[in-house]
Design a protein that fits this description.
The chain is α+β, with helices and mostly antiparallel strands and 153 residues long. The chain contains five helices and three strands. The protein is rod-shaped and about 120 Å long. It comes from Amycolatopsis albidoflavus. This is Flp pilus-assembly TadG-like N-terminal domain-containing protein.
């Protein structure tokens, strides 16, 4: 074989190039797909976990408002003082949580009802990575206020 023919580059042929890639493209595509799947999982499950947190916060605030409606009517009628009946406030807040299907704790201190709700969100795609649930928390507090009454002219 002449020397010039030995040093010449082989002609590029599509079939030969494809066979000669030795798995590099396959590894790249696999890594890219795994990255996209992880990004999709974080986006989907992260967004739904955030929605779960907002829902838990709303439930806690609503339960606290429900508990803050438990006025001590005897004290209000006798002196006009707006204060809570602690046992009834706790009961009303727990009743609201039960009706909403939420679990949480209720504390009554002075004239403030504080509710903390804990919810567990079951992941959709992150469960493939071993993260089965994300716990979210919501907190709300309320205290009774004297309402404004309109006086007719």
């Amino acid at each position: 074989m002449p020397a010039a023919a030995r040093h010449r580059r082989p002609r590029w042929r599509p079939v030969e190039w494809w066979r000669a890639e030795e798995g590099r493209v396959t590894a790249f595509v696999l890594a890219l797909l795994l990255g996209l799947l992880a990004l999709t999982g974080l986006s989907l499950d992260g967004g739904l976990a955030l929605a779960s947190k907002v829902c838990a916060g709303g439930q806690a605030e609503s339960a606290a408002r429900a508990g803050a409606q438990a006025l001590d009517l005897a004290a209000y009628r006798a002196t006009g003082t707006v204060r809570l009946d602690p046992g009834r406030a706790r009961e009303l807040a727990q009743r609201y949580l039960a009706a909403a299907g939420a679990t949480g704790t209720v504390q009554v201190a002075g004239d403030t009802v504080t509710v903390e709700v804990t919810a567990a969100y079951r992941t959709q795609l992150l469960s493939l990575a071993g993260i089965d649930e994300i716990r979210t928390h919501g907190r709300g507090s309320a205290h009774p206020q004297r309402g404004v009454t309109a006086v007719e002219p």
